[in-house]
Structure prediction request, 421 residues.
Amino acid sequence: MGFLQLHPNIRIRIITSFLTRVVGTMIFPFMAIYFSDKLGQALAGFLLFATICAQILTSFYGGYIADRWGRKKVLVYGQLIQCGAFTMMTLANSPLLDSAWLTFAMMLLQSASNGLINPAADAMLIDVSTKENRTFMYSISYWASNLSIAIGSVFGGLYFATHRFELLLALTLVGFVTLIITRFFMQESYQPTRQTSLPAGSRLLADLVKSYKKVLQDRRFLLYSLGGLFIFALEFQTSNYIAVRLSQEFQTQTLQFFDWFALEITGIKVFSLIQLENTLLVVCLSLLVTKLIGKTRPATAMYIGALLYIFGYAVTTYSNSLWVIVLTMFLATVGELMHIPTRQTYLAEIVRDDARSSYMAVNGLVLQGAKLSGAIGISLGAFLPSYGMALLFAGLGVMGLLLVRLVVRGLERENSMKEAA
Prediction:
C-alpha cells in the first residue's frame, strides 16, 4: 500500500490539510500573544475560549447536515466561509487597517467554519477508505499533521511578529486553493437515502437533538470514546501539569561536553526538550512504525501502544532524572504512533454508516475533554504529590485501555460471527 494507491479524496484531504496547517500553525498558536498585547491578557483568554466554544457548537450542526446533504456540499460551504474569514483577517492586519476586534470576529467565524468542515471531512475519509487501508491512511495523515505543525511552529516563531500580514495573505491564498480543489476535484462520497431538505425553526433544533440522541444512546461508541478520553488525557498533561512540575521540582543540572562547552539544563528546558523530542520522533518514525504494525494484529498493536503510552507519560509525571524522562518520552511517542492510527481504524467500524458525520462530531469532544483534563491536572497537582499524580494518571490510562478492550473484543466477536455465517 502506497500513498498513490489511496482514494483521490484521501490524497486531496491530506495534502490540503497539510498546506493549511503549515501556514495556520505560523499564525494561530501565536494569536494568544497578539490578543494579549492588543486587548489585555484577561480578555485574550476569554476570546480564545469563545473560539473553542464556537467550533464545538458548530461541529454538531456540521455533522448533522453532512449526514443529510452529503460531505462535499458541507466541505465547500465551510471552506467558502473560511476563505471569507481569512480574507477579512488579512485586511484587519494590513497596511490599510489594524483592528484586533475585526481579527477576533473573523477568527471566531474561522473556528465556526472548522466546526462545519471537520465532521464532514472525517466522515468522508471513512466513506472512501477500506478496513485494509485505514490504518495506513490514518498513519500518513498523523505524520503529515505533525510535520506541518513542526514546520509552521518554526517559521511562526521567526516571522509572526514582523510579517503577520504576509502570513495571513499566504493563509488566504492556501484557503482559496483548497476551495477550488475541493469544489472541482473532490468526489461526493455519500448520497443520503432520505430527504435532504432541512426542517425549519424549532423543528430543526428538535431534529438535531433527536439525531444526536441516537448517537449518545450507542453504548459501544460512548465506552470507546470515554476510553479514548482517559488515555489521551495523559498527553495533555505535558503542556500543563508536567510542565509546571518540571519547572518547580527539576533540579538544574549542568551537562559537560568534554572540555568544549557546558549546558545548563533547567526544568523549563527539559519541558521544551521533550516536546521537541515528541515532534521529531513522530515525523521520523511514523512510516517505520506503520510498517511494523501492518504486520501485526491491529488490536495487539493498539493495546501494546496504549501500554507504552501510559507507562511513558506516568513515569514522566514523576521522574526528575533527565535521561529517564527522555527515555520514557521515547516509549510514549512510539506507543502514540502504534495506538492512534489503529484506534481510528476501529472507530471507523463502530460508527453507523448513515450517521458518520454526527458520530465524528461527538468524537471531537474526546480531544476537547482531554484538553480540559490538562487544565484540571494543574489544579490537582497543587494538592497531590508527583507520585500521587503519576498513580492517578496511570490508573486513568489503564481504565481507558480496559474500556477500549471491552469494546474491541465485542466488535471482533461480531465480525467472527458474520464471517462464520
